[in-house]
Amino acid sequence: MARPHQLTQLELQLSPTPPSSPSPSPATSPPPSAPGTVRPGGRTARTRAAVRDAVLAGLVEYGYPGLTVEYVAEQSGVHKTTLYRRWGGVEGLVADALDLAGEDGWTPPDTGTLRGDLHALAQEIVDTFGDPAAAAAPAAFIAAAFQSERAAEALRGFYCERFARCAPLTERAVARGEVPAATDHDSLARAVSAPLFFRLFITREPLDAADADQAADVALAAARAGVFTPPA
Amino acid sequence: MARPHQLTQLELQLSPTPPSSPSPSPATSPPPSAPGTVRPGGRTARTRAAVRDAVLAGLVEYGYPGLTVEYVAEQSGVHKTTLYRRWGGVEGLVADALDLAGEDGWTPPDTGTLRGDLHALAQEIVDTFGDPAAAAAPAAFIAAAFQSERAAEALRGFYCERFARCAPLTERAVARGEVPAATDHDSLARAVSAPLFFRLFITREPLDAADADQAADVALAAARAGVFTPPA
């Protein structure tokens, strides 16, 4: 299953191997150790990444209702007993895969103007969801959250952390005098994202560059008008 | 299962009986005719409503993956053979339930100002999703769209038609000189809804009156700034 290696995305964007692990993951090249004897230490991160990849593959192929610990064991080469012991079951596996997805080095665009940054941010979302291979995993996580409270919690944590990373984007805009000093960075980043996810997952409509531009312009107009500053 | 009878909602809001059918539906009071012999004409609408209610009950209780024609037959009192013949199967049943949901008399708020209308619109969404009984059906349809292309199509149709009904809201605002004449009513109504659905179904965060106010204010600021007018 082809999945791009970009890690610089606001939305869920997952690479098959973590950036710190350049060697092939056990998912594609099984470790020499027999199932159930995965050693702790250096191998832990690779095991976790292999399990994460198997969870993603299963979510994309079967959806949350069809995902089983047996499937993850088979795909990852990690023994079922180990999976149950370390992750508890399917809910724990999905939640941890999402936590791991958040451990990338993503930072928001820095184009020199707030307008440019917001347009770039919106375009990143449109680009990701325009690529079926890149879109499959985030869509599967969002779907899983309808059926699992732990997946929903993990999704909430993922996006909270992701929007927190957008603080410098607003700080730079404030420093340049583009928006009021008290502008809430979190609300601004959410405002860009919301209309695009709304089309994708609620109204189920196509998404293009014009949608990205409008989402960015809406957020910019609201920020300039002081909508994202706390009430006096 | 308690479900409110309000029909004046922007988002999916379903009553157990259609407004044109004040008599009890076959779901609560089975028709005297034997299963499989449901007659055409006057009874068709009640049969359809009973089937719709059964589909909703199943979606809310088991989700799309757990919904079966057998369950709908049992709950609605309509024979399985009839369901297969008229709806084709689960996908057709879900799509038709959603089509039927769109056949209500909903119109957008008319408070005398655009600001008032947008705030009322946003508050309707917050109120509905703050009520677990009212929220269950729309959430179940949105979830089903992840797994069924026909449900996704029906959801797209539902929202397109719903936003089209918001045209008078923008027309009144244009007539009052509150926004530019070329303001696209569809974009304006979507802009109010998107941030609320984003919190509900993507970032999985709580929703309150402050979120409604911000969503309305963002849409208003963008409309005033001319973001929803076609590019020159």
TrEMBL record, chains A, B:
- Which Pfam families does the record associate with it? TetR_C_11, TetR_N
| Annotated Pro residues bias | 16-34
* Gene3D superfamilies named in the record: Homeodomain-like (1.10.10.60), Tetracycline Repressor, domain 2 (1.10.357.10)
Return the Low complexity bias intervals. Answer: 35-45
Record feature DNA-binding region, as residue ranges: 68-87
DNA-binding in keyword set: yes
Q: Where is the composition biased (Polar residues)?
A: 1-14
Kindly list the residue ranges recorded as spanning the membrane: none
**Family annotation (InterPro entries):** Homeodomain-like_sf, HTH-type_TetR-like_transc_reg, HTH_TetR, Tet_transcr_reg_TetR-rel_C_sf, TetR_C
Residues of the region (Disordered) are 1-45
Where would I find the HTH tetR-type domain in this sequence?
Answer: 45-105
UniProt KW keywords: DNA-binding, Transcription, Transcription regulation
Entry protein name: TetR family transcriptional regulator
Higher taxonomy: Bacteria, Bacillati, Actinomycetota, Actinomycetes, Kitasatosporales
